[in-house]
Amino acid sequence: PTNHLRHVESMKTLLSGAGNISILNAVILGEALASEENDLVFPSEKFSVQAHVPSPEKYLEMYRRSIEDPAGFWADIASEFYWKQKWSEQIYYENLDIRKGNIKIEWFKDGITNISYNCLDRHVEAGNGDKIAIYWEGNEPGFDGTLTYTQLLHQVCQLANYLKDIGVRKGDAVVVYLPMLMELPITMLACARIGAVHSVVFAGFSAESLAQRIMDCKPNVVITCNAVKRGSKTIYLKDIVDASLKESSQNGVFVDVCLTYENQSAMKREDTKWLDRRDIWWQDVVPQYPTTCAVEWVDAEDPLFLLYTSGSTGKPKGVLHTTGGYMVYTATTFNYAFDYKPSDVYWCTADCGWITGHSYVTYGPMLNGATVLVYEGAPNYPDPGRCWDIVDKYKVSIFYTAPTLVRALMRDGDQYVTRYSRKSLRVLGSVGEPINPSAWRWFFNLVGDSRCPISDTWWQTETGGFMITPLPGAWPQKPGSTTFPFFGVQPVIVDEKGVELEGECSGYLCVKSSWPGAFRTLYGDHERYETAYFKPFPGYYFSGDGCSRDKNGYHWLTGRVDDVINVSGHRIGTAEVESALVLHPQCAEAAVVGVEHEVKGQGIYAFVTLVDGVPYSEELRKSLIAIVRNQIGAFAAPDKIHWAPGLPKTRSGKIMRRILRKIASSQLDEFGDTSTLADPNVVDQLIDLADS
Ligand code: WTA
Fold first, then answer.
1. Is-contact 54 472, C-beta < 8 A?
2. Ligand 1 within 6 A of 431 CB?
3. Which residue range or ranges hold the Acetyl-coenzyme A synthetase N-terminal domain (predicted)?
4. Upstream peptide bond of 382 is cis (omega within 30 degrees of 0)
């Protein structure tokens, strides 16, 4: 204990800020914690001894260095990658304080590298070319494929050569609308190889949303496939792309080439609608190109990709990530948070259309030379045992998923889990929304046989990689807590005035100083970047999340505090759904709030005011839901339409969402102060219509 305390004392002087001190108290006094808490879950001795970070002390030592000497800490890690030219002496530059001028973050400036080279060539040249890079499992059981690192490199080079041949150059945007085929990571890596900026759009977005993104980043090339099967449904992706290209060309944005992969298991090429001057079959051109392709060396701060995400206003934000810092950060977080070992088989159930698929299907794992499983289909097809069938088939050892899937499978029944062995599993992971303790325990006890630590990773599209995450093996877990910050990350919890809170507290989650994986701007709108993330609490990056810290320093995420809702781990802006609803000719006004949902985490609850004289009807309800599907995508369809003769507004016309949230969750006696409402009768009318 004296040793521990000395450690705490020295750390207290080293690190200022309450967050850090409570972290220390918690991890160092882990044993003391155990006796007073019964909700601690300890990693087994067997797991800890083999882990990269086997103890709180080791974490502390590394964490301390990462805060005290970020340059040294990150330089050591970055040196393990291939750099054509080393970064300049000053490893990073940051201004995160809006009061001191424009926000600017740079890491490894003047370093010249290529992330595709580091994901592929580096492993092949080290003699690991025969290692499996991708196990691909199709929607239909029995339909599968594999690629070694050498084969993956060859395919990436062929596509890169084709793209170069049709004129795609460094810095050009390429929009990708593909399902979870091997061609999706291949495309990302091919773009990166030639310095093109990929913008992957989740293949569940509607034509309208796709068009919006195409019009924003103006690519010359869109890459897609004709169709895909998910579960028993066929989705005709090419039709959606056709509609979006029509729309964008009507708005003056012309795409020259639509490269289309023929996904034969879902649709034949004869059945695919075709525009000869624009559409090209992938299989007709790409395989003819050479399997080697010189790398385009890029600056660490050259853009790697754009990924659109939802904010509190209607227009999606183009989050821009650059090359060097993102590379180092995703690789490092993957390695530590999953305690990755070269013998692992890793499966992340996220789609590459979201940030999780960027950082933890493609880049993070492949930078580590990992074997990655890519699954095309639905997790409950043909039955809710499919995930564990796949785990057994490929001997998956790291399984990373979202709480919504855990809850859905939990509801389907234990028998689907227990009929499979799952003994290959070593580490489990969770992401996207807070995981409720009961789902956590089911995941831990049943799926992982009480043997596998769970890395509940908190992070965001904007952060590029994990920010607050367990390091399995290092310290005890509390079900539902994301535990402690990753190396180099300084989370702070502030009150509404931006004052850092100490000790046990609850408030807004911010981050002090930059980390290599941070996004650098919003594409074409640096001002919005500064306004949305750096102005709310000057001096910090503001995450948009609420968070509390318990007396032991563990972090507990409490959900978004802005007008963003999280439906099955998908980020949706309430304003986006509202803009879609008001496009309906019979909708006069709409207000959308999130409401607790047993499986999805949050559901979408829409209050709709109709144009004068229009009667309520089931048909109208359906057409309102349909317009949201068409404008955004099926995943954003409202769960409930609540007819609203009027909306509760202040005298200045601002909608009081607080009241709507209470009505949506049937907390009818907790409205709080309603005296500022322009018309208090509105509330009673809404309550009356709750079940209609
Ligand atoms: C939420 C997904 C609690 C959070 C990687 C955040 C989480 C938003 C967790 C980002 C977690 C993500 N616990 N909440 N482990 N992980 N979130 O950009 O509200 O799609 O702000 O990135 O998801 O969603 P995004």
1. no
2. yes
3. 59-119
4. yes
Query: To the nearest whole number, what is the mean pLDDT of the chain?
Result: 93
232 contacts 381 by C-beta, under 8 angstroms: yes
Q: Whose CA is nearest to atom 10 of ligand 1?
A: 460
What's the rounded Cα separation, in Å, for the pair 534 and 462?
A: 12
Mind listing the pLDDT tens digit for each residue in 76-96?
999 999 999 999 989 999 999
Pocket of ligand 1 contains residue 356 by CB under 6 Å: yes
pLDDT in tens, 117-155: 999 999 999 999 999 999 999 999 999 999 999 999 999
Tell me if 456 CB under 6 Å of ligand 1: yes
Give the CA distances from residue 196 to residues 176, 192, 419, in Å, rounded to whole numbers and listed in that order: 12, 6, 46
What's the CA gap between 399 and 393, in Å, rounded? Answer: 13
Rounded Cα distance, 334 and 364, in Å: 6
31: pLDDT strictly greater than 70: no
Cα separation, 73 vs 28, in Å, equals 22
- Bridge-partner residues for 521, per DSSP? 320
Above 50 in pLDDT, residue 9?
A: no
How far apart are alpha carbons 42 and 373 in whole angstroms?
A: 28
Q: Tokens 């306004």 correspond to what residue?
A: 531
3-class DSSP state for residue 683? helix
- Pocket flag, ligand 1, residue 511 (CB < 6 Å): no
CA 560 to ligand 1: nearest atom = 19
Cα 491 to averaged position of ligand 1 atoms, centre (Å): 15
Ligand 1 mutation target, pool 309, 333, 481, 566, most atoms within 8 A of CB: 566
Taking Cα atoms as reference points, which of 429, 516, 514 lies closest to residue 465? Answer: 516
**Measured in angstroms, how far is the CA atom of residue 482 from the centroid of ligand 1?**
11
Q: What atom in ligand 1 is closest to the CA of residue 354?
A: 20
- Cα of 529 vs centre of ligand 1, distance in Å, is 18
Report whether residue 545 contacts ligand 1, using a CB cutoff of 6 Å. Answer: yes
Distance 466 CA to ligand 1 centre (A): 10
* Alpha-carbon distance values, 502 to 18, 206, 429 (Å): 5, 45, 29
- How many residues are listed for the chain in this entry? 692
Rounded distance, CA 244 to CA 213, Å?
Answer: 10
d(CA 231, CA 152): 27
Q: What was the ipTM of the complex prediction?
A: 1.00
Q: How many CB atoms lie within 10 A of CB 34?
A: 12
- Residues 96 and 519: beta-carbon distance below 8 Å: no
The whole-number average pLDDT for the span 303-324 is 92
Q: Which is it for the CA torsion 261, 263, 266, 272, positive or negative? A: positive
CA 95 to chain CA mean position, Å: 25
Q: Are 370 and 403 in contact (CB under 8 A)?
A: no
**pLDDT tens per residue across span 201-260:** 999 999 999 999 999 999 999 999 999 999 999 999 999 999 999 999 999 999 999 999
Residue 401's closest CA among 427, 420, 422, 419?
Answer: 427
Contacting residues for 308 by C-beta, under 8 A, at least 6 apart: 199, 201, 213, 216, 316, 317, 318, 319
**Mean pLDDT throughout 654-675?**
88
**In terms of Cα–Cα distance, which of 424, 432, 382 is closest to 406?**
432
CB-facing half-sphere around the CA of 395: CA atoms within 13 A? 3
The Å distance, Cα 432 to ligand 1 centre, comes to 4
Tell me the two tokens of residue 673. Answer: 């102060």
Scan for tokens 């910090």, then name that residue.
540
Closest-lying ligand 1 atom to the alpha carbon of residue 462: 18
CA of 453 to the centre of ligand 1 (A): 20
Catalytic residue chosen out of the listed positions 392, 449, 562, 639: 562
Q: Give pLDDT, residue 38.
A: 53
* Angstrom distance (rounded) from CA 153 to CA 640: 47
